[in-house]
Specification:
single chain; mainly alpha; 121 residues; 4 helices
Length: 121
């Protein structure tokens, strides 16, 4: 059989399904470093989802120690779970509400300023 199908493919799939990997933030660190080198301002937003979720402490620490802006959009007034039909993607009505939320929270600052702006719950 081709492409890992059959018994061996099932064995690999079974193993990988049981393996829980701890997230690493290597790529994020690289992106933050590149942004710093090029004096670019990065903005990260935690998106609203149908079910509440926590932001991992390690990720919070990385964002807090960087020169990025983080906007916590997990709980936007006016967006309900019904407006996130698949649990992840917001519908058009939610998009109308959501689009204003981060825009109102973006700090206005000169391009060369590198202070961090973090708001975590």
């Amino acid at each position: 059989m081709k492409n890992g199908q059959g018994r061996e493919g099932a064995r690999r799939l079974s193993w990988s399904a049981r393996t829980v990997c701890r997230p690493t933030y290597r790529r994020l660190d690289q992106m933050l470093e590149l942004a710093s080198e090029s004096q670019s301002q990065l903005v990260f937003a935690a998106m609203p989802m149908a079910k509440p979720y926590e932001i991992p402490k390690e990720l919070q620490n990385i964002l807090e120690s960087s020169a990025c802006t983080f906007i916590d959009c997990r709980d936007v007034s006016g967006i309900t779970a019904e407006m996130i039909p698949d649990g992840v993607h917001i519908n058009e009505a939610a998009a109308q509400v959501y689009s204003r939320y981060p825009a109102q929270r973006l700090p206005l600052r000169p391009r060369n300023e590198t202070t961090s702006s973090i708001t975590l719950k």
